[in-house]
Amino acid sequence: MTRFMPDEALLASPRGRAFPFYADQDTAMRRDAVPPTVDLVIVGGGLAGLAVYSACWHAGLRNVVLLERTGVIGGQFFQRVDRLKQRVLRSPYDHHPGAEGHRDCELLDFARLHWAHLTDIERREVRMAQAGHRSVVPLDVFEGFCRHVAAIHQVYARSWQAHVSQLESSEDSVCVKTSNGEIRARSVVMCTGERRVQAPDSWRENGKDWKRVFYWDEPVPEHASAAVVVGAGLSAAHVIANFLDKGSQVDWILRKTERYQCADVNASFFRAEGRARFLDTDRHQRLELMRRERRASIMFEFEPRIRRAEFAGQLRVHRNSHVACIGDTGEGVRLAIEGGRSIEADIAVLALGTQANVGAGLLPDEIIAPRDGWPDIEQATLAYTHAPRIHVVGAAAAMALGPAARNIDGHRVATARVLKAITRTCLPAKDGRDRPSSRSVGTNA
């Protein structure tokens, strides 16, 4: 059997390159008052929101508003990866945001168009992708491509930096309450992504707040002579690598063992036959599939570096270990491990994974109707069963699409389902008359 031999150099692509761009386009999101009435509101300007907007543009739906609280296309995605000092994505070149069935310019095309800006290693990865092999995508290339997709679909002209506080659904419209005013829309698509998993309350020693415990997506002190990292996935690996670069002594706590592989689920779930497994099963079976198939994983390229640090003694790996509680020592932190052991360090970083934003805080529980942490949505339209004008694209749709819902390709598949329902509501009928629902909402922005 042939084993893939990782190359650490693949992790070190440059960051901050300025690819040629559309000089005449204003890429700043608007901050003025939002339009009072529109056809569609997209909540979230991350990768899923970009896919939805692009698909709507191709469908001829122009009276659309995209709302993003960070004010940047890509949302918190790029903020998080930059905080981790991540330089590449494990997704191959055929995973990219955009509209399903419309090949305006794909990620691989974009990389080839900007060949002169790539390093020799990055060019080798492009050739690997062209040959159909696994490849690593530089973050610069991916971000540049996202900006390109936003520009050619005129996303910036209809994007507002705004915080959404509440959605109120009625029979013929949805009221979206934002920091920039209220919008009445015929339909809403929720693209709110994922949030970090919080540590259980039982981890807080005597229920006290932590002073030297941080999460992976928070600013972490630059200098720590000793650090503890809790978590088994890619975020944990980046945090560990950053500490090792600074010369810190690191303890790594894993509930199981580290998994070096290029995907956190079986790749078949990203294809039609894998998604079909979620069509032919009941809810209990889907939950079991989700529990069994999703697992923390780390890119192959990290393995040599981590093994080398462990052998040298700079990294101590505590496999099959469970945290009992974490407390401050006055000068640092102490982590009590089940079984009686304890670990002390200057700081601790928790990288416990992510979970879907299912609409909590924006919608009442009776609309979300969560069961086992997942919202009650329709299989065909990805709309909330109790609010058929509000749809979800992204991780919250996992009970309908499976693990693919969290994937960039999955966003395109989800968008294709949602678009069928949206166009019935938002586009004029073929006879030229508005559909019945449009009279209660209005058509002008």
UniProtKB/TrEMBL annotation:
InterPro entries in UniProt: FAD/NAD-bd_sf (IPR036188), FAD/NAD-binding_dom (IPR023753)
Domain FAD/NAD(P)-binding: 39-397
Domain of life: Bacteria
Name of a matching Pfam family: Pyr_redox_2
Entries under PANTHER family matching the protein: L-ORNITHINE N(5)-MONOOXYGENASE (PTHR38663:SF1), PTHR38663
Protein name in the entry: NAD(P)-binding domain-containing protein
Species in which this protein is naturally found: Actinomadura alba
Source lineage: Bacteria, Bacillati, Actinomycetota, Actinomycetes, Streptosporangiales
